Amino acid sequence: MEDKAGYLMDNEEENIRLDIKTDPEAVRTQAQWCGIRPGMRVLDAGCGAGITTAILTDMVQPGGTVVGVDYSKDRIKYAVENYGRDGKTQFHIRDLRRDLGDLGQFDIIWIRFVLEYNRVESPDIVKKLAELLKPGGYLCLLDLDYNCLNHYELPPQMDRLLHRLMERLDREYNFDTYAGRKLYSYVYDADLEDIRMDLFAHHLFYGSIEDKDVFNWTKKAEMAASRLGDLFDDYPGGSKAFSEEFNRFLYDPRRFTYTTMMLCKGRKPFSRLK
Ligand SMILES: C[S@@+](CC[C@H](N)C(=O)[O-])C[C@H]1O[C@@H](n2cnc3c(N)ncnc32)[C@H](O)[C@@H]1O
Q1: Is the CB of 70 under 6 A from ligand 1?
Q2: pTM of the model
Q3: Looking at the predicted structure, is the pLDDT value of residue 2 above 80?
């Protein structure tokens, strides 16, 4: 694989994209499924702009705390300024591929939409995170499956291009279009027990669509065009025409688009005391 290290979606509007696209109700439902409750110490691994961390902090009150870590200085600066002033949420710059031992131990470790950006290192990241669990603590992985590819009815040329695009993001940018289906094996290989899986509709668009959802998808398309511009050489009208046509597709009330989010949790055995 070509080495193009760094976060695929990085750009100056990423904090805003994450803030706008995050659905607090969905995060709460997912966090409840994970077992997050008052009094816990939770790690939000790859916390992004901090909005999810703030929601988790709310859910562990009274008495709980949440630590958010992300390798982007920009994300953490934004998170501290917008969500880090309550004394119950801490943010640190950390790369999940490096040692995280100084963060201490956690009742729950939550990692949402992060493994998909670390295809090669995902199994190691999961094992490393499992080491930070208190005995009886749960590791919770949340990620998308068959990412960006479930649309009907796309013009065939656009459908072909989207498939080629995702293939290249996987191959050249360490992305993982199929992260969701791999979560169970990661948790299994980390020797966790009481493993549970579930799935949610992360996107489910039919009929009208909200502007915030179009904004999110438009940002994804812009990112793809800026990174893999050559893919659009054969597309009539190039990347500009693709973006406009995809935008029209999204606003078309006949269109059907969905993305499946997989959730997987596993418990650290009580017997594995250090
Ligand atoms: C799509 S955002 C998800 C943010 C948040 N977890 C959520 O659920 O909305 C992915 C985040 O993971 C971070 N990230 C990706 N790989 C990372 C790594 N190896 N170490 C630390 N952070 C990472 C990125 O910087 C980015 O902020």
Answers
A1: yes
A2: 0.96
A3: no
